[in-house]
Write a structure and sequence with these properties.
This protein is α+β, with helices and mostly antiparallel strands and 151 residues long. The protein has a single domain, classed as Glutaredoxin (3-Layer(aba) Sandwich). It contains five helices and nine strands, in the order βββααβαβαββββα. The strands form two sheets. It has a seven-stranded mixed sheet with strand order 2-1-5-4-3-8-9. Strands 6-7 form a two-stranded antiparallel ribbon. A hairpin with a 5-residue loop joins β8 and β9.
């Protein structure tokens, strides 16, 4: 179970630019690693736009923002272009990264059970350790919480 002070699991995954990145590529910087269920859905769009609208403030702290979902690279490209998102989106179609961070969970809606991403954010420090984490994120006000933890 991941907790504050735990080493953040490293991963390799493809981005919206078609590049393969690894978490260790960002050593020396704080990383806001946020997991969301699906591109271009109401809550996920609101969350992405909140990160976009506060991107200058996030960047001022020196932090890197990475959004992760099971969507394909091509869906990420469309989502990013549609909402002019200035940060990197990471594609995790086989849910490997979601599994490493324990965000692939059984969910329930209207009594129906299914597997999906539990909206979660991990703030990873310059040394690759988890500095703060939020599970079952409620979108309104979340980016402000992240900014507060970056100070």
């Amino acid at each position: 179970m991941l907790d504050i002070g735990s080493k953040a699991p490293d991963f390799k995954a493809e981005t919206d630019k078609g590049e393969t990145i690894s978490l260790k590529d960002f050593r020396g910087k704080q990383v806001v690693l946020y997991f969301y269920p699906k591109d271009d859905t109401t809550g996920c769009t609101k969350e992405a736009c909140d990160f976009r609208d506060n991107f200058a403030r996030l960047k001022k702290t020196g932090a890197v923002v990475l959004g992760v979902s099971p969507d394909t690279v091509s869906k990420h490209v469309k989502f990013k272009e549609k909402y002019d998102l200035p940060f990197t989106l990471v594609s995790d179609p086989d849910k490997t990264v979601c599994g490493l961070y324990d965000v692939w969970k059984e969910k329930s809606m209207y009594g129906r059970k299914y597997m999906g991403v539990e909206r979660s954010t991990f703030l990873i420090d310059e040394h690759g350790k988890i500095k703060a984490l939020w599970r079952k994120v409620k979108v309104p006000g979340h980016v402000e919480e992240v900014l507060g933890a970056l100070k």
